Amino acid sequence: MEQNQFSNLPLKQELLSVLSEIGFAEMTPVQAQTLPILLAGHDLTGKSKTGSGKTAAFALPILNKINLEDRVPQALIICPTRELGQQVTREFRRLARKFEGLQVILLSGGQPLREQAFSLRKGVHIAVGTPGRVLDLIYKGKFYLDTISTVVLDEADKMLELGFEADINAIIDETPKDRQTVMFSATFPESIEHLSRKYQKNPIKIEIEDTG
Hints:
The chain has helices at 13-21, 29-39, 54-65, 82-95, 113-122, 131-139, 156-161, 165-172, 190-199, and strands spanning 44-47, 75-78, 104-107, 126-129, 150-153, 180-185, 204-207. By secondary structure, it is an alpha/beta fold. It is globular and about 45 Å long. It has nine helices and seven strands, in the order H-H-E-H-E-H-E-H-E-H-E-H-H-E-H-E. It has a seven-stranded parallel sheet, sandwiched between helices.
């Protein structure tokens, strides 16, 4: 099982140190299959259920390449619900606790838009958000996506089920063409395939079997 260790990956020492402290030694199946691909900068479509460790699978590669000196949005993670957004934000902060000055913001309902706009103006590195609130901030001229290098659609199938396809299209269209685009989904309906063809470049498709 040695090859399953996080220490075999090209991760920054700060991240390896945090992983060790919180008791993450061996990768889950989704992490073992996706981390090398994401760390190499490839686009990916991953089929994986909630609770499989997928948040760390996309958070670690983002944190590994974040430029702390540059307080501009470098990664955007879009989630279908505020609750999932809160979980993802917590996981980023937990994994990044040795990254001094790292700013992660949650952009969703439940907090006044003006407070989120103020935080964005002060400078953030990573934004996690729900489609409606992210688009609202973009349209109001409070959130610019021209510095984003990674976009993650978390629970992409759920977002499409909830009718967010037009919002997702509008958001991704604001990001640079050379970004890394990552999708995690519990199922692969045709709508996900369509989204992948539209926005991903030679994505690697990974399916993690449900081990029960």
